[in-house]
Design a protein that fits this description.
Length: 353
């Protein structure tokens, strides 16, 4: 790379709905914290007026946040006009990286027209089932394809859904890497967190995820209700927020198990909360990644809750060890993965700008 041609830091514009503590948002923040920000700086174009959970940190790290309104069908014409103005006002962006699935179409089209050379779309998940929105989603994702230069994905299923099987040769995997050091098991931290939560010798089942349909919280609660019949001294920790939380709170009340279920909301101490858990249960509809051999069992969602409960009891006493080497070997340690992403941006910038 001819570094004399690059004005550091190069600025990458990330497109999001809002920078709250969702999966994609947390993933990007993990990368943002670990890149060399003297070389690559992240900025954000979000589509809500309210501030997100990560906004303060973004600004502390030197990022800029621009705001637009939601991309709803009634706003399409207005959005086309305003995104055109945005790119005219901000010619400094030579790389855009959208995490909005097919809703990035309008930005990609305008960016291409205004000569932005690197236009990255990122597929974070694949939908399950069909609803009326799928008609519009399918239309937009097909219209979007000619304007993309790079097709990122977090998993093959998400890539195939968003970009199509025929484009598989262009898929680029970006793992949802974590700060593996912070997840090392620590007995003293476990005991401290359990005291903080008012837990003693309970069997603690945990889940981390936004309350939306894909996370399958309703089935998780059925599993836990079945577990309580076998292990009355059990507690379920639900970490995350979202519009579906109230319905799940109603469900645990109806089942009479509310005193055993903790809705902890959106948290910044997930790594420590996981140390307090005995078994992590994740009956998601369509996302999965298994790295550590011997620790994870996979059950079909068609299996009865009682089957899941029995498997939880089998797993409750597994030894807790340092698995950093396995995480890194599979490409999920943020320390090394952030360097790879940083070099990708710098190379793309040098080759196209």
């Amino acid at each position: 790379m001819n570094e004399n041609r690059v004005q550091y830091p190069i600025r990458v514009l990330n497109l999001f709905t809002v920078m709250d503590r969702g999966g994609a948002e947390t993933m990007v923040m993990n990368y943002y914290r670990h890149i060399d920000r003297t070389k690559v700086q992240f900025d954000f174009l979000v589509h809500r007026e309210q501030r997100g959970a990560y906004d303060d940190e973004i600004e502390t790290l030197g990022g800029r946040i621009y705001r637009m309104y939601p991309i709803y069908p009634q706003n399409f014409a207005r959005y086309k006009r305003d995104i055109r103005v945005f790119f005219k006002d901000h010619p400094e962006y030579r790389i855009i990286h959208s995490h909005m699935s097919e809703l990035g179409y309008f930005a990609f089209r305008e960016a291409e027209r205004q000569g932005v050379p690197v236009r990255i779309c990122h597929a974070h998940n694949a939908p399950n089932g069909f609803d009326a929105k799928m008609i519009v989603r399918t239309y937009l994702k097909k219209r979007m394809m000619p304007y993309l230069t790079h097709l990122f994905m977090c998993g093959e299923a998400s890539g195939k859904w968003l970009y199509g099987e025929k484009n598989k040769s262009r898929f680029l995997m970006l793992n949802n890497a974590i700060d593996a050091v912070s997840y090392i098991y620590d007995l003293s931290k476990r005991e401290e967190m359990r005291r903080h939560l008012g837990l003693a010798d309970e069997l603690v089942i945990g889940h981390v995820g936004r309350f939306n349909p894909q996370k399958n919280h309703s089935f998780l609660i059925d599993i836990f209700a079945a577990l309580l019949k076998k292990e009355p001294n059990a507690v379920l920790l639900l970490v995350g927020g979202g519009v579906g939380m109230s319905k799940m709170q109603e469900k645990v009340q109806e089942l009479g198990i509310a005193e055993h279920v903790r809705f902890l909301g959106v948290r910044s101490d997930v790594a420590d909360l996981m140390k307090a858990m005995d078994v992590f249960v994740f009956p998601s509809l369509y996302e999965e990644c298994i790295l550590t051999e011997g620790l994870v069992d996979v059950l079909p969602l068609s299996a009865e809750p009682e089957i899941w409960a029995a498997k939880i009891l089998e797993k409750k006493n597994l030894p807790r060890t340092d698995r950093r080497s396995e995480i890194a070997a599979h490409g999920f340690d943020i320390t090394t993965e952030a360097v790879k992403l940083q070099e990708f941006y710098l190379k793309a910038y040098e080759q196209n700008c």
